[in-house]
């Protein structure tokens, strides 16, 4: 199993947590620029440049917009109680889970995995609620991701993806 | 097995064919369907650009005859192929010319790939070979309709 990235979006469409496990793809959709070889991508992996960071922010917005419109499309076609679960392309698979409070959990993995919705639910119930919601120091809302990426949550998430997720 | 519907989206994002085989999806008017097709066209492009591991073209050093005419299509990220929801499953097949076939089925439907292939075959036979059909225009070909009907009923 390969895990690419994981995102949490709050009900205000903002990305409050994002985590990547692979070096970011070099150039986006525009394949004009030659792709760096594996050696060069390792060297550029050391420090996250400003360009990369803005690239990440762009990706977050794209993913939010995408799951939002896919969810709306699914509800239009399948009725109000239909829920969007996942989609797969030739290269990756996106898993989606939405809580009753409209928080969205999104995970990008390789294509071999079955639906991860129960695991995303577990992340919400056992990690997010436990370490972020019940944290007395964390604010109620998390503008800009304040209070989400605390040490306990990060560590628990790391443990979760290495031990609980099917390999 | 239940096949709910088939949509065909042209390469510019217009809905050129829609056909419902079984009730199951919501009834939508043609305006909504057109909007849906257009927005799906955009979403498909976004799923393509989000790819975290772009396919790497093979080294150009191979000397076989096939490499003399490099195809621009084989090393491209594919974009959305299967969409799963709690009530249906949508398979999207994009041809090399950019036409998208969307097939809506039950979530646990086997052999969608072969069905898709067959539908593409019907499309090639009865739509593309129809001298009165202009590309990018809505498909009104009786033989295509009948072929689809026969095919879906045969499998159902």
TrEMBL record, chain A:
Keyword annotations of the record: Endoplasmic reticulum, ER-Golgi transport, Golgi apparatus, Transport
Region (Disordered): 24-54
Lineage: Eukaryota, Fungi, Dikarya, Ascomycota, Pezizomycotina
Protein family per UniProt: Belongs to the TRAPP small subunits family. BET5 subfamily.
Main location (coarse class): endoplasmic reticulum
Any Gene Ontology CC annotation: endoplasmic reticulum
Organism: Bimuria novae-zelandiae CBS 107.79
Protein name: Trafficking protein particle complex subunit
SUPFAM superfamilies referenced in this protein's UniProt entry, alphabetically: SNARE-like
Subunit structure: Part of the multisubunit transport protein particle (TRAPP) complex.
From TrEMBL, chain B:
The keyword GTP-binding is assigned to this record: no
GO CC term, one of those recorded: Golgi apparatus
Source taxon at top rank: Eukaryota
Xref: Gene3D superfamilies: 3.30.450.70
GO biological process, one term: endoplasmic reticulum to Golgi vesicle-mediated transport
Keywords: Endoplasmic reticulum, ER-Golgi transport, Golgi apparatus, Transport
Intracellular or extracellular location(s): Endoplasmic reticulum; Golgi apparatus, cis-Golgi network; Golgi apparatus
Pfam families linked: Sybindin
PANTHER family in alphabetical order: TRAFFICKING PROTEIN PARTICLE COMPLEX SUBUNIT, TRAFFICKING PROTEIN PARTICLE COMPLEX SUBUNIT 4
Family of this protein: Belongs to the TRAPP small subunits family. TRAPPC4 subfamily.
Subunit relationships: Part of the multisubunit transport protein particle (TRAPP) complex.
Name recorded for this polypeptide: Trafficking protein particle complex subunit
Phylogenetic lineage: Eukaryota, Fungi, Dikarya, Ascomycota, Pezizomycotina
């Amino acid at each position: 199993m390969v895990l690419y990235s994981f995102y949490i979006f709050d009900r205000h469409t903002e990305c409050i947590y994002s985590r990547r496990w692979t070096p970011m793809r070099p150039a986006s959709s525009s394949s004009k620029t030659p792709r760096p070889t594996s050696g060069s991508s390792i060297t550029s992996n050391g420090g996250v440049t400003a360009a990369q960071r803005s690239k990440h922010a762009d990706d977050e917005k794209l993913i939010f917009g995408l799951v939002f419109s896919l969810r709306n499309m699914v509800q239009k076609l399948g009725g109000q109680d239909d829920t969007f679960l996942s989609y797969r392309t030739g290269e990756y698979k996106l898993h989606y889970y939405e809580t009753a409070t409209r928080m969205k959990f999104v995970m990008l993995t390789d294509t071999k995995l079955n639906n991860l919705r129960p695991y995303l639910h577990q992340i919400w119930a056992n990690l997010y609620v436990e370490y972020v919601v019940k944290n007395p120091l964390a604010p109620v809302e998390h503008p800009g991701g304040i209070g989400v990426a605390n040490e306990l949550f990060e560590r628990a998430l790391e443990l979760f993806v290495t031990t609980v997720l099917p390999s | 097995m239940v096949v709910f519907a088939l949509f065909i989206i042209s390469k510019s994002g217009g809905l050129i064919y829609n056909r419902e085989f079984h009730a199951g999806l919501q009834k939508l008017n043609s305006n909504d369907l057109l909007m849906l097709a257009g927005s799906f066209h955009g979403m498909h492009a976004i799923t393509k650009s989000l790819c975290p591991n772009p396919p790497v073209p093979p080294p150009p050093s191979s000397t076989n005859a096939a490499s003399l005419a490099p195809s621009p299509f084989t090393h491209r990220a594919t974009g959305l192929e299967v969409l799963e929801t709690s009530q249906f499953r949508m398979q999207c097949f994009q041809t090399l010319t950019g036409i998208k076939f969307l097939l809506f089925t039950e979530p646990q439907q086997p052999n969608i790939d072969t069905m898709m292939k067959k539908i593409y075959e019907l499309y090639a036979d009865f739509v593309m070979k129809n001298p009165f059909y202009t590309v990018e225009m809505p498909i009104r070909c009786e033989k295509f309709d009948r072929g689809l009907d026969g095919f879906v009923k045969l499998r159902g």
